[in-house]
Amino acid sequence: MCIRDRDSITDAYGCPQYFPDYREYFSSNPDDRWTDRICPDGTWEANLFQFYYRVYPKLAAALPKPFALKDGIREDETPTHTALREAFINALVHCDYSVDSNITIELHKDCYIFSNPGSLLLSIAQYYQGGNSVCRNKALQTMFMLIGSAEKAGSGADKIMQGWKKANYRNPRIEEITHPDKVVLTLPLVSLLSDEVISYLKSLFGEDITSIEHNKLMTLATCCSEGEVTNYRMQLVLDKHSADITKLLKELCNDRYLIPEGIGRGTHYRINKKFRERELPGNVASNVASNVASNVASNVASSPDKERRRRLSSSELHTAILQACVDFESLEAIANKVGKSLRYLKNRAIPIMVAEGLLEREYPYMPKHPHQRYRAKKR
Hints:
By secondary structure, this protein is α+β, with helices and mostly antiparallel strands. It has three domains: 6-188, Heat Shock Protein 90, CATH 3.30.565; 195-300, Winged helix-like DNA-binding domain superfamily/Winged helix DNA-binding domain (Arc Repressor Mutant, subunit A, Orthogonal Bundle); 306-376, Arc Repressor Mutant, subunit A (Orthogonal Bundle), CATH 1.10.10. Helices cover 39% and strands 14% of the residues. The strands form four sheets. A six-stranded mixed β-sheet has the order 2-1-5-6-8-7. The chain has a three-stranded antiparallel β-sheet with strand order 9-11-10. A two-stranded antiparallel sheet has the order 3-4. α8 (214-226) crosses α12. The longest helix is centred in the N-terminal third of the chain and has 15 residues, at 79-93.
Protein backbone atom coordinates (compact mmCIF):
# COMPACT_ATOMS: atom_id res chain seq x y z
CA MET A 1 0.00 0.00 0.00
CA CYS A 2 3.00 2.32 0.34
CA ILE A 3 3.27 3.04 -3.36
CA ARG A 4 3.11 6.35 -5.09
CA ASP A 5 0.57 5.78 -7.82
CA ARG A 6 -2.93 5.32 -6.41
CA ASP A 7 -4.15 4.04 -9.79
CA SER A 8 -1.99 0.94 -9.32
CA ILE A 9 -3.62 0.36 -5.95
CA THR A 10 -7.16 0.48 -7.26
CA ASP A 11 -6.71 -1.34 -10.57
CA ALA A 12 -8.31 -4.74 -11.14
CA TYR A 13 -5.15 -6.56 -10.00
CA GLY A 14 -4.74 -4.57 -6.83
CA CYS A 15 -7.45 -3.37 -4.45
CA PRO A 16 -10.19 -1.82 -6.61
CA GLN A 17 -12.23 -0.77 -3.56
CA TYR A 18 -9.30 0.97 -1.81
CA PHE A 19 -10.62 4.17 -0.22
CA PRO A 20 -9.40 4.98 3.31
CA ASP A 21 -11.77 7.55 4.76
CA TYR A 22 -11.40 9.75 7.87
CA ARG A 23 -14.26 11.95 9.08
CA GLU A 24 -14.80 14.31 12.00
CA TYR A 25 -18.27 14.97 13.39
CA PHE A 26 -18.10 17.96 15.73
CA SER A 27 -21.14 19.94 14.58
CA SER A 28 -24.42 19.85 16.49
CA ASN A 29 -26.28 20.60 13.25
CA PRO A 30 -27.79 17.31 11.95
CA ASP A 31 -27.64 18.65 8.38
CA ASP A 32 -23.81 18.81 8.46
CA ARG A 33 -22.41 15.58 7.02
CA TRP A 34 -18.99 16.12 8.66
CA THR A 35 -16.74 18.94 9.86
CA ASP A 36 -13.47 17.57 8.42
CA ARG A 37 -12.52 14.76 6.10
CA ILE A 38 -9.38 13.09 4.74
CA CYS A 39 -9.82 10.72 1.81
CA PRO A 40 -8.23 10.06 -1.60
CA ASP A 41 -9.29 13.31 -3.27
CA GLY A 42 -6.30 13.76 -5.57
CA THR A 43 -4.49 16.35 -3.41
CA TRP A 44 -2.11 13.89 -1.69
CA GLU A 45 -0.45 10.52 -2.24
CA ALA A 46 -3.26 8.30 -1.07
CA ASN A 47 -1.28 5.38 0.37
CA LEU A 48 -1.67 4.00 3.89
CA PHE A 49 1.63 5.50 5.05
CA GLN A 50 0.44 9.00 4.20
CA PHE A 51 -3.07 8.30 5.48
CA TYR A 52 -1.70 7.24 8.86
CA TYR A 53 0.52 10.30 9.24
CA ARG A 54 -2.25 12.69 8.22
CA VAL A 55 -4.97 11.17 10.41
CA TYR A 56 -3.23 10.10 13.63
CA PRO A 57 -2.37 13.65 14.83
CA LYS A 58 -6.05 14.59 14.48
CA LEU A 59 -7.10 11.55 16.50
CA ALA A 60 -4.49 12.16 19.20
CA ALA A 61 -5.42 15.84 19.52
CA ALA A 62 -8.81 14.81 20.94
CA LEU A 63 -7.17 13.12 23.96
CA PRO A 64 -6.25 15.10 27.06
CA LYS A 65 -2.53 15.40 27.81
CA PRO A 66 -2.07 15.21 31.57
CA PHE A 67 1.14 16.62 32.96
CA ALA A 68 3.49 13.77 33.85
CA LEU A 69 7.25 13.58 34.46
CA LYS A 70 9.59 10.65 33.90
CA ASP A 71 13.23 11.15 34.90
CA GLY A 72 12.56 14.88 35.00
CA ILE A 73 11.25 14.97 31.42
CA ARG A 74 7.65 15.72 30.56
CA GLU A 75 5.75 12.82 28.98
CA ASP A 76 2.96 13.66 26.56
CA GLU A 77 2.48 10.04 25.48
CA THR A 78 0.11 8.18 27.80
CA PRO A 79 -1.17 4.57 27.78
CA THR A 80 -4.36 5.98 26.28
CA HIS A 81 -2.40 7.39 23.32
CA THR A 82 -0.76 3.98 22.88
CA ALA A 83 -4.21 2.35 22.91
CA LEU A 84 -5.52 4.82 20.32
CA ARG A 85 -2.56 4.23 18.01
CA GLU A 86 -2.93 0.47 18.36
CA ALA A 87 -6.64 0.66 17.49
CA PHE A 88 -5.91 2.78 14.41
CA ILE A 89 -3.11 0.52 13.18
CA ASN A 90 -5.21 -2.59 13.84
CA ALA A 91 -7.92 -1.23 11.53
CA LEU A 92 -5.34 -0.78 8.74
CA VAL A 93 -3.41 -4.01 9.30
CA HIS A 94 -6.37 -6.36 9.77
CA CYS A 95 -8.47 -4.91 6.95
CA ASP A 96 -9.56 -7.23 4.14
CA TYR A 97 -8.73 -5.06 1.12
CA SER A 98 -10.24 -7.54 -1.34
CA VAL A 99 -13.88 -7.00 -0.38
CA ASP A 100 -16.35 -4.40 -1.62
CA SER A 101 -16.01 -1.97 1.28
CA ASN A 102 -13.53 0.53 2.70
CA ILE A 103 -11.83 1.62 5.93
CA THR A 104 -13.68 4.32 7.84
CA ILE A 105 -12.20 6.19 10.80
CA GLU A 106 -14.60 8.52 12.63
CA LEU A 107 -13.98 11.05 15.39
CA HIS A 108 -17.08 12.18 17.29
CA LYS A 109 -17.33 14.46 20.31
CA ASP A 110 -17.80 11.45 22.57
CA CYS A 111 -16.07 8.54 20.83
CA TYR A 112 -13.78 7.15 18.14
CA ILE A 113 -15.17 4.59 15.68
CA PHE A 114 -12.81 2.38 13.64
CA SER A 115 -14.49 0.33 10.92
CA ASN A 116 -12.61 -2.01 8.59
CA PRO A 117 -13.81 -4.65 6.09
CA GLY A 118 -13.34 -8.28 7.04
CA SER A 119 -14.04 -10.37 10.11
CA LEU A 120 -12.29 -10.99 13.40
CA LEU A 121 -9.70 -13.77 13.30
CA LEU A 122 -10.45 -14.55 16.95
CA SER A 123 -13.64 -14.61 19.01
CA ILE A 124 -15.03 -11.47 20.64
CA ALA A 125 -14.51 -13.12 24.05
CA GLN A 126 -10.82 -13.67 23.19
CA TYR A 127 -10.57 -10.05 22.06
CA TYR A 128 -11.84 -8.72 25.39
CA GLN A 129 -9.38 -11.01 27.18
CA GLY A 130 -6.50 -9.43 25.25
CA GLY A 131 -5.94 -12.33 22.87
CA ASN A 132 -3.56 -12.05 19.92
CA SER A 133 -5.06 -12.19 16.45
CA VAL A 134 -3.53 -13.73 13.33
CA CYS A 135 -2.35 -10.83 11.18
CA ARG A 136 -4.18 -10.56 7.87
CA ASN A 137 -1.58 -8.31 6.18
CA LYS A 138 1.91 -9.12 7.50
CA ALA A 139 3.66 -6.72 5.08
CA LEU A 140 1.65 -3.82 6.51
CA GLN A 141 2.40 -5.01 10.03
CA THR A 142 6.12 -4.99 9.22
CA MET A 143 5.87 -1.48 7.74
CA PHE A 144 4.37 -0.02 10.92
CA MET A 145 6.97 -1.81 13.01
CA LEU A 146 9.79 -0.38 10.87
CA ILE A 147 8.53 3.20 11.18
CA GLY A 148 8.41 2.80 14.95
CA SER A 149 4.67 3.22 15.40
CA ALA A 150 4.37 0.10 17.52
CA GLU A 151 6.54 -2.69 18.92
CA LYS A 152 4.39 -5.20 17.09
CA ALA A 153 1.64 -3.44 15.20
CA GLY A 154 -1.75 -5.08 15.51
CA SER A 155 -0.45 -7.54 18.11
CA GLY A 156 -3.56 -7.67 20.27
CA ALA A 157 -6.31 -5.92 22.18
CA ASP A 158 -4.60 -5.82 25.59
CA LYS A 159 -3.04 -2.38 25.00
CA ILE A 160 -6.38 -0.97 23.90
CA MET A 161 -8.32 -2.35 26.86
CA GLN A 162 -5.68 -1.38 29.44
CA GLY A 163 -5.09 2.08 27.98
CA TRP A 164 -8.78 2.93 28.07
CA LYS A 165 -9.14 1.49 31.56
CA LYS A 166 -6.28 3.67 32.89
CA ALA A 167 -8.08 6.78 31.65
CA ASN A 168 -11.31 5.67 33.42
CA TYR A 169 -13.18 5.76 30.12
CA ARG A 170 -16.09 3.45 29.46
CA ASN A 171 -15.02 0.11 28.02
CA PRO A 172 -14.18 -0.23 24.31
CA ARG A 173 -16.83 -2.06 22.31
CA ILE A 174 -16.04 -4.45 19.44
CA GLU A 175 -18.72 -5.64 17.00
CA GLU A 176 -18.85 -7.84 13.92
CA ILE A 177 -21.32 -6.81 11.24
CA THR A 178 -22.31 -8.92 8.24
CA HIS A 179 -23.46 -8.08 4.70
CA PRO A 180 -20.91 -6.69 4.10
CA ASP A 181 -18.56 -8.16 6.67
CA LYS A 182 -16.84 -5.54 8.80
CA VAL A 183 -15.36 -5.11 12.26
CA VAL A 184 -16.33 -1.98 14.21
CA LEU A 185 -14.40 -0.83 17.28
CA THR A 186 -15.83 2.01 19.36
CA LEU A 187 -13.62 3.80 21.90
CA PRO A 188 -15.84 5.98 24.13
CA LEU A 189 -14.51 9.35 25.28
CA VAL A 190 -16.90 9.36 28.23
CA SER A 191 -15.28 9.16 31.65
CA LEU A 192 -16.82 6.96 34.31
CA LEU A 193 -15.36 9.35 36.90
CA SER A 194 -16.42 12.67 35.42
CA ASP A 195 -16.72 15.74 37.68
CA GLU A 196 -20.49 15.53 37.27
CA VAL A 197 -20.68 11.93 38.49
CA ILE A 198 -18.30 12.54 41.40
CA SER A 199 -20.32 15.59 42.44
CA TYR A 200 -23.51 13.54 42.45
CA LEU A 201 -21.95 10.72 44.47
CA LYS A 202 -20.67 13.25 47.03
CA SER A 203 -24.16 14.73 47.36
CA LEU A 204 -25.53 11.29 48.19
CA PHE A 205 -22.76 9.71 50.24
CA GLY A 206 -20.66 12.61 51.53
CA GLU A 207 -17.26 14.05 50.64
CA ASP A 208 -15.39 10.94 51.82
CA ILE A 209 -16.90 8.75 49.10
CA THR A 210 -13.89 9.37 46.83
CA SER A 211 -11.59 7.77 49.41
CA ILE A 212 -13.17 4.31 49.18
CA GLU A 213 -11.48 1.50 47.28
CA HIS A 214 -11.04 2.39 43.60
CA ASN A 215 -12.98 -0.61 42.26
CA LYS A 216 -15.90 0.26 44.54
CA LEU A 217 -15.85 3.87 43.37
CA MET A 218 -15.79 2.71 39.74
CA THR A 219 -18.79 0.47 40.43
CA LEU A 220 -20.77 3.34 41.96
CA ALA A 221 -19.77 5.64 39.09
CA THR A 222 -20.84 3.06 36.50
CA CYS A 223 -24.15 2.58 38.29
CA CYS A 224 -24.61 6.35 38.39
CA SER A 225 -23.90 6.74 34.66
CA GLU A 226 -25.90 3.75 33.43
CA GLY A 227 -28.74 3.59 35.95
CA GLU A 228 -27.90 0.08 37.18
CA VAL A 229 -25.13 -2.52 37.13
CA THR A 230 -24.93 -6.31 37.06
CA ASN A 231 -22.19 -8.75 37.97
CA TYR A 232 -21.41 -9.36 34.31
CA ARG A 233 -21.28 -5.65 33.47
CA MET A 234 -18.75 -5.01 36.25
CA GLN A 235 -16.65 -7.98 35.14
CA LEU A 236 -16.16 -6.13 31.84
CA VAL A 237 -15.52 -2.74 33.44
CA LEU A 238 -13.08 -3.92 36.12
CA ASP A 239 -11.62 -6.98 34.36
CA LYS A 240 -12.28 -9.10 37.45
CA HIS A 241 -13.55 -12.64 38.01
CA SER A 242 -17.23 -13.16 38.76
CA ALA A 243 -16.46 -14.26 42.34
CA ASP A 244 -14.50 -11.05 43.01
CA ILE A 245 -17.36 -8.94 41.65
CA THR A 246 -19.88 -10.86 43.77
CA LYS A 247 -17.86 -10.04 46.89
CA LEU A 248 -17.48 -6.37 45.89
CA LEU A 249 -21.20 -5.93 45.19
CA LYS A 250 -22.12 -7.66 48.47
CA GLU A 251 -19.88 -5.25 50.39
CA LEU A 252 -21.40 -2.23 48.65
CA CYS A 253 -24.87 -3.50 49.55
CA ASN A 254 -23.84 -4.16 53.16
CA ASP A 255 -22.53 -0.59 53.34
CA ARG A 256 -25.89 0.59 51.94
CA TYR A 257 -24.38 2.23 48.84
CA LEU A 258 -26.28 -0.11 46.50
CA ILE A 259 -29.72 -1.76 46.57
CA PRO A 260 -30.04 -5.23 44.97
CA GLU A 261 -33.09 -6.11 42.88
CA GLY A 262 -33.89 -9.57 41.57
CA ILE A 263 -32.59 -13.04 42.41
CA GLY A 264 -29.50 -15.01 41.39
CA ARG A 265 -27.89 -14.23 38.07
CA GLY A 266 -30.71 -11.85 37.24
CA THR A 267 -29.82 -9.55 40.13
CA HIS A 268 -29.13 -5.95 39.21
CA TYR A 269 -28.05 -3.14 41.49
CA ARG A 270 -29.11 0.48 41.81
CA ILE A 271 -27.78 3.47 43.71
CA ASN A 272 -29.29 3.86 47.20
CA LYS A 273 -30.61 7.42 46.99
CA LYS A 274 -31.89 7.23 50.59
CA PHE A 275 -28.45 6.49 52.01
CA ARG A 276 -28.34 9.58 54.25
CA GLU A 277 -31.94 9.62 55.46
CA ARG A 278 -31.00 7.78 58.67
CA GLU A 279 -28.26 10.32 59.37
CA LEU A 280 -29.85 13.67 58.52
CA PRO A 281 -32.85 15.26 60.27
CA GLY A 282 -36.08 16.15 58.53
CA ASN A 283 -35.99 16.40 54.76
CA VAL A 284 -32.32 17.39 54.45
CA ALA A 285 -31.48 14.27 52.46
CA SER A 286 -34.22 14.85 49.93
CA ASN A 287 -33.23 18.51 49.66
CA VAL A 288 -29.65 17.48 48.87
CA ALA A 289 -30.77 15.12 46.14
CA SER A 290 -33.08 17.70 44.59
CA ASN A 291 -30.18 20.07 44.02
CA VAL A 292 -28.26 17.61 41.85
CA ALA A 293 -28.05 18.27 38.11
CA SER A 294 -31.12 16.82 36.42
CA ASN A 295 -29.21 15.03 33.68
CA VAL A 296 -27.30 12.91 36.20
CA ALA A 297 -30.34 12.37 38.39
CA SER A 298 -32.30 11.01 35.45
CA ASN A 299 -29.66 8.31 34.91
CA VAL A 300 -29.69 7.24 38.54
CA ALA A 301 -33.45 7.40 39.17
CA SER A 302 -34.75 3.90 39.71
CA SER A 303 -38.39 4.76 39.16
CA PRO A 304 -40.50 7.80 38.21
CA ASP A 305 -42.26 9.94 40.80
CA LYS A 306 -45.65 8.76 42.03
CA GLU A 307 -47.53 11.39 40.11
CA ARG A 308 -45.94 10.10 36.90
CA ARG A 309 -46.76 6.45 37.55
CA ARG A 310 -50.22 6.62 36.04
CA ARG A 311 -50.42 3.71 33.63
CA LEU A 312 -50.44 4.96 30.06
CA SER A 313 -51.99 3.13 27.16
CA SER A 314 -49.65 2.10 24.34
CA SER A 315 -50.86 4.91 22.12
CA GLU A 316 -50.46 7.49 24.91
CA LEU A 317 -46.94 6.27 25.65
CA HIS A 318 -45.98 6.32 21.96
CA THR A 319 -47.28 9.87 21.65
CA ALA A 320 -45.30 10.94 24.74
CA ILE A 321 -42.12 9.36 23.38
CA LEU A 322 -42.54 11.00 19.98
CA GLN A 323 -43.03 14.38 21.65
CA ALA A 324 -39.86 13.78 23.69
CA CYS A 325 -37.84 12.84 20.58
CA VAL A 326 -38.09 15.93 18.39
CA ASP A 327 -34.28 15.74 18.23
CA PHE A 328 -32.09 12.71 18.88
CA GLU A 329 -32.37 11.70 22.53
CA SER A 330 -30.70 8.98 24.62
CA LEU A 331 -32.72 6.27 26.36
CA GLU A 332 -31.95 7.91 29.71
CA ALA A 333 -33.30 11.26 28.55
CA ILE A 334 -36.46 9.65 27.13
CA ALA A 335 -37.04 7.70 30.36
CA ASN A 336 -36.79 10.90 32.37
CA LYS A 337 -39.19 12.79 30.11
CA VAL A 338 -41.94 10.17 29.87
CA GLY A 339 -41.61 8.69 33.37
CA LYS A 340 -40.93 5.09 32.36
CA SER A 341 -38.11 2.81 33.47
CA LEU A 342 -35.02 2.53 31.32
CA ARG A 343 -35.38 -1.24 31.15
CA TYR A 344 -38.99 -1.09 29.91
CA LEU A 345 -38.12 1.43 27.17
CA LYS A 346 -35.01 -0.47 26.09
CA ASN A 347 -36.60 -3.91 25.93
CA ARG A 348 -40.18 -3.13 24.86
CA ALA A 349 -41.38 0.32 23.84
CA ILE A 350 -38.43 1.61 21.80
CA PRO A 351 -37.83 -1.59 19.72
CA ILE A 352 -41.55 -1.69 18.85
CA MET A 353 -41.57 1.96 17.75
CA VAL A 354 -38.42 1.48 15.66
CA ALA A 355 -39.91 -1.62 14.00
CA GLU A 356 -43.12 0.30 13.25
CA GLY A 357 -41.16 3.15 11.66
CA LEU A 358 -42.12 5.70 14.33
CA LEU A 359 -38.56 6.24 15.58
CA GLU A 360 -35.19 6.24 13.82
CA ARG A 361 -31.77 5.47 15.29
CA GLU A 362 -28.86 7.90 15.11
CA TYR A 363 -26.68 4.89 14.22
CA PRO A 364 -29.08 2.80 12.11
CA TYR A 365 -26.52 0.13 11.17
CA MET A 366 -25.28 -0.28 14.75
CA PRO A 367 -28.40 -0.92 16.90
CA LYS A 368 -26.26 -1.62 20.00
CA HIS A 369 -24.02 1.42 19.59
CA PRO A 370 -23.01 2.56 23.11
CA HIS A 371 -24.16 6.11 22.36
CA GLN A 372 -27.31 5.22 20.43
CA ARG A 373 -30.03 7.88 20.38
CA TYR A 374 -33.54 8.04 18.91
CA ARG A 375 -35.60 10.62 17.04
CA ALA A 376 -39.20 10.78 15.81
CA LYS A 377 -39.13 9.74 12.19
CA LYS A 378 -40.01 12.52 9.79
CA ARG A 379 -42.90 11.66 7.52
